[in-house]
Structure formats: structure tokens, C-alpha cells
Specification:
Blueprint lengths: L1 H18 L2 E2 L1 H11 L1 H22 L4 E11 L2 E3 L6 E3 L2 E15 L3 H67 L5 H36 L8 E2 L9 H4 L3 H11 L1 H22 L4 E13 L3 E3 L4 E11 L5 E8 L2 E3 L2 H7 L2 E9 L4
């Protein structure tokens, strides 16, 4: 039982250590930026944009692909080496190498490259925007917890004071020194403050849950935060005009820069659409070969075996004889077939839209 007891004590100690952790505002923001789902989604979207940009760069270069096949044929099939139909089971195969080079596509590829580059920059700015939004939301939830804590403390102080006044009023009423209505007023005031306390506790719980959700803090239903030391802002920051703050935001906010880049991206999309009106010139090339286990080749020279009637006769009525040769065939090696069946092709294609 000792191992189980040790594990239980370790888990208990670990849980207590987590429960006692005091979170600063920086800790909360850093944790949220690393774990919040919205931030992770924006980062993944940025990676997708980066892959799209790399793909658009690759589209400017020739595309080359290779293929190979191995076939088993049953029944009547076309032999790829002799181009004759055979009615038997045989094995065949082939390989090919194909290339495609876009020469002119109406500048579509260039517009697409610039658009994907801009979209990649936009995605990075979107990540910054989401991070800023999450940081602001975490800070707001953090401040709300601080406010709720102070409100709860103030409510407890008022309850303590009202309770003392209520007890004092009860003593006076019991001794006929104060009207009973004053005691009822004190009870009503105490009930109001207790209601305010319940509302403050609910607001505090709700604020903590909001912060926990923003941070994506797994397995937590409560969080303890530290009360930061108050720092009085400098007079320079307090004297900033609304116009200067607005101009500074225009220069630094990522969503402003992202909107400007999205406008440029839209112009590149217009260029891509216009490119469809221009002719397209492309070059193609391929190398291929094949083989079949039915391929045979002549082994040596034919052997003369005599003459046989050809079925024709001369004008004098004599039969016409024809020589007969015996041929010996052997299977053609795969290497020889691949060399003999090797083929090349090149093609230039011009496509012009009519409408």
C-alpha cells in the first residue's frame, strides 16, 4: 500500500500547489497567448497562408511528375509492345516522366504570387490583432476581479456596520427607548446589504470564470490573482490629446495595416480575374516506355527446312513451291524492352479565350 499512499500524497500536494498559485496580470496574459483557442486558430491560419505563398512561388517553375504502373491482364487484351490483341493472361508495365512549363498565363501567376504574399502578411497581422484582443480581454477580466474583490470587501464592511446598528437598535427597542419601526428599518437595511453581498459574490465568480475561459486554464474552477501596486501615470501620458492617440493607433494597430493590405490583395484578385481574358501559352514534354512479358525476339537466323506448295500453279500447270524456314523465339529481356520502347514527345499549346 506504500506506493499508492505516496502517489496519493503527491497528487494531493500537486493539487494544493496549483490551488495556491497566485497569478499576476502578466502571468495571465502570457498563459492566454500560449493556450487560447482563438490565438492558436489564427496561428494555424497564418501557417496555411505561408504554405499558399510557397505554392504560388512554385507555380512559376516547371512542374514535373513521374508515374509508373504494373498491370495484370486477363482475357482478350491489347499487348502494349506489339499493339496486337492477345487472348491470354499476361503482365505489362510502364513508366513516364511528364513536364509542364507555363510560358505566359496573362500575368495570372505574377498577380497570384503578389496576392499570396500580401495575404501572408495580413495573416501575421491578424495573429497580432487576436493576441491584442485576448490580452485586452484578459486585462479587463483581471480588473473586473479586482473590482469585485473590493466591492465584496466594502459590502462585508457595510454588513458589519449595519449589523452593529441593528443590534444597537434592538437593545433600544427592547428597553422601550426606540420605536419598533426603527428596528424593522435596520433589518431591511441589513437584508439589502446581504443581497448586495450575494450579488458581489456572484459577480466575482462570474469574472473568475471569464478569466479562466480566456486563459483556457484546464481543470480549474477558481483562480487567485495578486493585487498589483498602483502606479500613478505620468503627466505626459495624461496630457495626450484624443487626436494624437488616434493618429498613434492608425500607425500601430495591426487591424489598420491589415485593412490596407487587404485592399491591395483585392486589387491583385482583380488582376487575376482580368488575366483570364488573355491567351495562355504552355510547353509540355514527356518521356515514356513500357514492357510486357509476352514480348519475344528472334533467336539467331531462321533455319531452311525445304519447300512446300504455295497453292499457285504456272501457266503450264506446274505447282509453285515456296521455301519454308523455322524460327526460334526467346523472351525479350525487360531492359531491352525499356530501351526499344523508349519514346519522347514535345508540345507547345496556345489557348485563346473566345468569350
Amino acid at each position: 500500500m506504500k506506493p499508492f499512499k505516496s502517489i496519493f500524497l503527491f497528487i494531493l500536494f500537486f493539487s494544493e500547489a496549483n490551488a495556491q498559485k497566485i497569478w499576476s496580470l502578466k502571468d495571465c496574459i502570457d498563459y492566454a497567448l500560449n493556450n487560447n483557442i482563438s490565438v492558436q486558430q489564427s496561428i494555424i491560419a497564418s501557417k496555411i497562408a505561408a504554405a499558399t505563398y510557397q505554392q504560388s512561388v512554385g507555380s512559376l517553375f516547371p512542374s514535373i511528375n513521374a508515374s509508373s504502373s504494373l498491370n495484370y491482364n486477363y482475357g482478350r487484351s491489347l499487348d502494349p509492345t506489339s499493339y496486337q490483341y492477345v487472348d491470354q493472361t499476361f503482365q505489362s508495365g510502364g513508366a513516364s516522366l511528364n513536364g509542364n512549363l507555363p510560358i505566359f498565363q496573362g500575368l495570372e501567376l505574377q498577380h497570384n504570387l503578389r496576392k499570396s504574399s500580401i495575404d501572408f502578411d495580413v495573416s501575421k497581422l491578424d495573429v497580432r490583432k487576436v493576441q491584442n484582443d485576448i490580452a485586452l480581454s484578459v486585462a479587463a477580466a483581471y480588473l473586473q476581479i479586482l473590482y469585485s474583490n473590493e466591492q465584496l470587501k466594502a459590502t462585508n464592511d457595510r454588513i458589519e456596520a449595519v449589523t452593529k446598528e441593528r443590534n444597537r437598535a434592538k437593545i433600544l427597542v427592547d428597553n422601550d427607548l426606540l420605536a419598533e419601526g426603527s428596528l424593522l428599518d435596520a433589518d431591511a437595511l441589513l437584508a439589502t446589504e446581504e443581497f448586495n453581498k450575494a450579488s458581489a459574490e456572484n459577480l466575482l465568480t462570474s469574472s473568475k470564470l471569464t478569466l479562466i475561459q480566456l486563459m483556457q486554464l484546464e481543470g480549474a474552477n477558481d483562480i487567485a490573482i495578486e493585487t498589483p501596486a498602483l502606479e500613478i501615470p505620468s503627466q505626459e501620458s495624461l496630457s495626450l490629446s484624443s487626436e494624437s492617440v488616434y493618429n498613434e493607433a492608425l500607425k500601430n494597430l495591426p487591424e489598420v495595416k491589415a485593412s490596407e493590405l487587404r485592399l491591395k490583395s483585392a486589387k491583385e484578385s482583380l488582376g487575376i480575374a482580368r488575366a483570364a481574358r488573355y491567351p495562355r501559352l504552355s510547353a509540355f514534354g514527356s518521356l515514356s516506355t513500357n514492357y510486357s512479358n509476352q514480348a519475344t525476339s528472334l533467336d539467331g537466323n531462321p533455319v531452311f527446312s525445304g519447300y512446300v506448295p504455295s497453292g499457285a500453279v504456272t501457266s503450264s500447270g506446274e505447282q509453285v513451291l515456296q521455301p519454308v524456314f523455322n524460327y526460334k523465339y526467346i523472351d525479350t529481356p525487360v531492359k531491352d524492352q525499356l530501351n526499344n520502347n523508349f519514346g519522347k514527345s514535345y508540345r507547345i499549346q496556345l489557348v485563346h479565350p473566345l468569350i
